[in-house]
Structures are given as structure tokens and as C-alpha cells.
Amino acid sequence: MNVRRSAAVLAAVAVLGAAAPAAADSSPSPTPQALPSALYGDTDPQYDGVWRQSLALLAQHAAGTEPPKAAVGWLTGQQCADGSFAPFRADPSAACDAKTMVDTNQTAAAVQALAALGGHDAVTDKAVGWLKSVQNEDGGWGYTAGGPSDTNSTSVVVGALAAVGEKPGEVRKGGKSPYDALLGLELPCTGEGAGAFAYQPEKDGSLTANADATAAGVLGALGKGLLVEPGEGDGAAGSCVEATTPAQAAANGAAHLAGALAAKGHLLASTPGAEDQPDFGNTADAVVALAAQGDTAQAEKSYAWLEKNAADWAAQSGPGAYAQLILASHATGADPRDFGGTDLVEQLRAAGPAAPEKTAKATEEAQDEKDSDSPFGVWWFVGVCLVAGIGIGFLISNRTKRQQP
Question: What's residue 384's pLDDT?
Fold first, then answer.
């Protein structure tokens, strides 16, 4: 069964409607509010603000650029008293409550970014404490506290643990470590999807190969986070053998990714009723995973494909996409300031606090909506839903069910 990109976006819009009563800082607002000036990007941060901010800060650190203090301060300000992070808190002075949406992915991403920058031990220690408190009995983590463990969430938490100097294999619940959870989510070496990771088991308990989960699973099994140093290895993927250790599970996952990338140099996103399209984000994540494993040959080939083809996608997708490409560049030892003629670092910088015009633009648009009595106001609402859905879709595209062809 393939999970299609369009289905993920539609599901995201559905989640938007279902989650509205539980929005962070639940006071309703009749009009759109201006975006925080310290935030990267110009789309609604309600569902992915912390994630994209964390990636933006981490990518700038990887590129040797010090991010603005205001941007770092915005990120730390999203933390709740219990250590968890909400994707977006419009009023950080108001205490988080039961209606404040928090999740493991945003929290773990924030930990990785702040640990890399340094000087935020109090914040990261509290966040890691919360992550440990919501570990599942199988050793893994779900997207939300208490949710079923999935490969992507477990892996991003492993990266957070490693970033603060913890040994992920020693963080246990019910006698199980996150590595146990990951081993249970990898497909065997026989049949379709051999060696890949599933996002979660299907309802019948079976496992379905998932490219995004596989890229995440390789990093998690290696005990690495989103920021990977240039890979070392013999430059080639190995063959799949039964995985009894995290290291072998990572090798199997990398071999699966290398095979999926070999034909075209990139992964595909499938949409019902339409031709398959290049999946730039998953390809960038796969490059990082392969570099971490030491399959530098395929990592470099696919990075070269991204250089030729991904600039327009990044420009349309925003800071999270620029950050993904910078992290892929770093993992392969390439120069993110010369990405097929594009300076990724400058493009990312321009999407942040250095571009104050975005705040004025958001304020103007909010005022226009307030002043308008047009019966087409319902389409504004649909537009907001779609923007939020795309935001969630992008978030999910990096951390949830999206399959390779």
C-alpha cells in the first residue's frame, strides 16, 4: 500500500479541523495575526513553527553562520514549563495547559538545534527530561505523548539524546531502548522493501517500506541526529542481512535507499491520478542518511541531482527546504553557498529576521481581511486551511508516512 502525497495533505487539512479546539494558546482571534519578526518563513507557524525554526538554526550552524539572537530567543520561548515544546505559542508569557499542543518531534528538533548552538543547557535538559517521561514501553516514541511508536519520531528523539551527550541505548522504558523499537520497525531482507524501515506497523501488524522513515531510521539506528558530518566509508552500500544490531539495521536501510536512488538519482512522490513527481525533501534526507552510513558514492550522486533540480522547489517551499539542502550539503562536504549557482545560506538568512518586510506584509494582509465584508471570506478560511495543511504536509513529509516508488 502506497501512501500518497495528496492523501497526506488532505489528512493534514482534516487534522487542522479536528485540532482547532486544542490550538496552542486557545484564545480565538477574529483576524490573522502578524507573524513574529524572529520567525523563519512566512506561513502559519501553528503546526510547524518550532520544527522549521530548529532546522533553520541547525542549518546555519552547519554552514558556520551564527543565527540571529532573536531567532534563537523565539525558539526557546516556545518551551512549556514541563520541558516540552509547542509548535507555536503566540503568547509565551501565558502558561501552557492541557489544550496546548506539544509533540516529541518539535521538542527533539529544538533540542538538537539548541545543543548545537550551545549555551542552552537548562532548556535542553528540561526538554530531554520530558522526552524521557513520554517514552513508550517498546522503547520508542510516537509523534504525541503516548501515541504509538513510529520510526521517524523515535529517530528524531534519538538524535536529541545524542546531541546532549546521552547514550540512546541506555534510555529505556519497560526494559526496551529506542534501538529495540527501531529494530522492530525494519522489514526483513526478503520480499518487497527488503531492509527498509516502516513508519508504523499496519493494522494487521505487517510492515510497509517507507522511504522517509527509512532515511530517518538509518540516522536513528546510527545514533545520529539531523546534523551529520561528512561521511566516512568505502563509498558503497552493502547487502541486506538479518539485522540483530542497530548498526546492521542502519546498513540495511542505507542499502535499500541506495537501491531506490540508483535508477534516477532521486526518490519519487506519488499522487493518485497524476504522474509521479520528484520528491526533493525525501531525496535530501536520503542523502544525509547515506552519508552518515558511509555510502558516499550514491550520496554524492543524488546531491548532484539536487543541485541541478531542487533550487526552484526550495524557493517555493521556504526555510525548511533550504535547511534540508544545507544539511545535505554539509553531510556530503559540499559548499551550500554554491548550490548550482544558488547561495542556500543567503536564501535561508533572507527568510528569517533579516527580512522584516514579511511582518509588514502579514500585518497588511490581516488588516485587509479585517476591513473586507466580502462574501468570499469563506475562501480566505479555506486558504488558511490549505496553508496550514501544506505546513503540516511539509512537516509530515519529513517525519511521517510517505513512500518510495
Answer: 41
3-state SS track over 267-315: CEECCCCCCCEECHHHHHHHHHHHHHHCCHHHHHHHHHHHHHHCHHHHH
Q: Which residues of the chain have pLDDT under 50?
A: 1-32, 356, 359-360, 362-363, 366, 369-370, 372-405
With beta carbons less than 8 A apart as the criterion, state whether 399 and 209 touch: no
Residue 239: the pLDDT is 82
Classified as helix, coil or strand, 88 is: coil
- Backbone phi and psi for residue 198, each to the nearest 5 degrees, phi listed first: -90, 160
* Cα 358 to Cα 36, 272, 348, 375, 393, distances in angstroms: 9, 35, 14, 27, 22
Could you tell me the three cell numbers for 278? 520528484
The amino acid at residue 278 is: P
For residue 78, count other CB atoms closer than 10 A to its CB.
24
How far is Cα 395 from Cα 289, in angstroms, rounded to an integer? 18
Number of H helices, E strands in the chain: 16, 2
CA 225 to each of CA 35, 286, 289: distance values in angstroms, whole numbers, following the listed order: 29, 13, 10
Angle at the Cα of 82 from the Cα atoms of 112 and 107, rounded to 5 degrees: 25
Residue 27 pLDDT: 41
Residue 38 has a pLDDT of: 96
CA-to-CA distance for 234 and 352, rounded, in angstroms? 38
pLDDT score recorded for residue 358: 52
Residue with cell 541506555: 170
Evaluate whether 197 touches 151 at the Cβ level (below 8 Å): yes
DSSP letter at 231?
A: P
Q: How many CA atoms lie within 13 Å of 281's alpha carbon, on the beta-carbon side?
A: 25
Structure confidence at residue 400 (pLDDT): 45
Helix (H, G, I), strand (E, B) or coil at 86: coil
DSSP β-bridge partners for residue 278: 268
Phi, psi of 262 (to 5 degrees): -60, -40
Q: Tell me the whole-structure pTM to 2 decimals.
A: 0.82
| Distance in angstroms (rounded) separating the CA atoms of residues 289 and 254 | 7
Report CA torsion sign: 338, 397, 120, 169: negative
